[in-house]
Amino acid sequence: YRMRAEFRIWHKGGEMFYAMFERGQKASGASLIRCDQFPAASESINALMPKLIEAASNHPELKNRWYAVEFLSTLSGEMLVTMIYHKKLNDAWQQAAQELAHNLGIHIIGRSRGQKIVLSQDFVTEALEVNGKTFRYRQIEGSFTQPNAQVCKKMLTWACDAAQNLGKDMLELYCGNGNFTLPLSQHFNQVLATEVSKTSVNAAQWNIEANQTTNLKIARLSAEEFTEAYTQNREFRRLQE
């Protein structure tokens, strides 16, 4: 059910495999849990796990000092994989990763200290159906999204049912990428949503346009800053539009 998962890459002898560690324990061989599969994750993540580890194991540039991996999937099967290394990523790694991405039909990001290499894109696009209408969401690597897409659809449906006939206007603080904001905006006249993360604000702006929502504005403000603006104790250039 989890649309995202992350693992350490453990090197032992000539073998390499996914690993997690006992809760509350240091990351060491004593607390290591080998994870060839991860039943809590989506089917697409579980299907990709053995293919990715096998392909990387057979290529020195991909295998050498590979430290961790993050998977981000969607209900449609779109996949973004972040490969994290303890080495500087060079042109040889990038060429090998491009070939890997093409062969597996996935998007890949390479990370190491001070480096982020995006081979194609750093996001996936999720589609969630709420009361017969489909909403599209850009979900960016490293930003928060609901980990369980099926439960998320049920939460959105419940929230929209609860908002029926309320009318008036709506304020949402810390809206993220607009996960709840977009479906709820159908039930209000005007909507103002706030968020502090630039990444989430940018994703929300794309989501607003992609879903052709015209009664929703987003501002990069904390709850405290919104209160200052609402009570007219402080002016913000971010609110001039």
Approximate shape:
elongated
Largest sheet: number of strands, sense, barrel closure:
7 strands, mixed
Number of helices: 7
Radius of gyration: 21 Å
Strand content: 25-35%
Tell how many strands the DSSP assignment holds: 12
Widest beta sheet: strand line-up: 3-2-1-4-5-6-7
Architecture of the largest domain, CATH level 2?
Beta Barrel
| CATH topology (fold) name of the largest domain | OB fold (Dihydrolipoamide Acetyltransferase, E2P)
How far is it from the N-terminal to the C-terminal residue, by CA?
A: 40 Å
Structural class: alpha/beta
Mean pLDDT: 94
Helix content: 25-40%
> What is the number of independent domains?
2
* Quaternary structure classification: single chain
CATH class of the largest domain: Mainly Beta
- Poorly predicted runs of 5 or more residues: none
Provide the succession of SSEs: EEEHHEEHEEEEHEHEHEH
Key descriptive features of the protein:
30% helix, single chain, seven-stranded mixed β-sheet, 241 residues, alpha/beta, OB fold (Dihydrolipoamide Acetyltransferase, E2P), Rossmann fold, three-stranded parallel β-sheet
Describe this structure in words.
With 241 residues, the protein is of the alpha/beta class. The protein has 2 domains: 4-121, Beta Barrel (OB fold (Dihydrolipoamide Acetyltransferase, E2P)), CATH 2.40.50.1070; 132-239, Rossmann fold (3-Layer(aba) Sandwich), CATH 3.40.50.150. The chain is built from 7 helices and 12 strands. The protein has helices at 43-57, 60-63, 91-104, 149-162, 181-184, 198-210, 223-230; strands spanning 4-12, 15-21, 32-34, 66-73, 79-85, 107-112, 115-118, 123-130, 133-140, 170-172, 191-194, 216-219. Strands 3-2-1-4-5-6-7 form a 7-stranded mixed sheet, covered by helices on one side. It has a 3-stranded parallel sheet with strand order 10-11-12, with helices on one face. Strand 1 (4-12) and strand 2 form a beta hairpin. It starts with a strand and ends in an 11-residue tail after the last helix.
